[in-house]
Amino acid sequence: MKAFNPEKSLQSVEENGQQLSPTLPEGIKNYLIDIDGTICDDIPNEEPERMLTAAVYPDALATLNRWYDEGHVVFFFTSRTEMHRAYTETWLKKHGFKYHGILFGKPRGGNYHWIDNHLVKATRFRGKFTDLIEKEVTIQVFDDNPNDN
User: Fold this and answer.
1) How far apart are CA 51 and CA 79, in angstroms?
2) What is the DSSP letter of 37?
3) How confident is residue 83, by pLDDT bands cut at 50, 70 and 90?
4) How far is residue 68's CA from residue 146's CA, in Å, rounded to a whole number?
5) Which of 35-39, 62-66, 139-143 has the lowest mean pLDDT?
6) What is the C-alpha to C-alpha distance for residues 60 and 38, in angstroms, rounded to an integer?
7) Given a cut of 60, is residue 2 above it in pLDDT?
8) What are φ and ψ of residue 51, in 5° steps?
């Protein structure tokens, strides 16, 4: 199956005669996936030589490549820096990961809270990739009616 090209498949969005940011087709997900501790051993930026020998998590490889083959967008979003690009790309290629791109320089330290004008879904990785399931959870959101208090 040919890889999905997200740029060529974006759909135009218009509201009140104004062009908005385009969206992906229905059913296509835009996955942003961490690297260290999520698809392989957790390697700190201070030890880049270990990045080439990190153990791959086989369930991560199989799941991410399946998502890619199904036409979803697979991007890595990592706290590694641009200085680590060569090591990172070499390791991903060596293990056969299929992906559309990598975003370097994610802030370190965790406790992420992403704010966006598009719907964002977050899944905390806890040691194993599986199929995603529906689950109700409590989250923090903006008050849609701040003057109703």
Assistant:
1) 13
2) T
3) very high
4) 41
5) 139-143
6) 8
7) no
8) -65, -30
- Determine how many CB atoms are found less than 10 A away from the CB of residue 57: 20
Q: Which SS3 state, helix, strand or coil, does residue 145 take?
A: coil
Give the pLDDT of residue 1.
Answer: 38
**What's the whole-number mean pLDDT along residues 13-33?**
88
Q: Which two tokens mark 78?
A: 């990592």
**Residue 67, both tokens:** 């998502």
Tokens coding 18: 């104004």
As a whole number of Å, the end-to-end CA separation of the chain is 53
Nearest by Cα to 76 from 35, 48, 45, 117? 35
CA gap 35, 56 in Å, rounded: 10
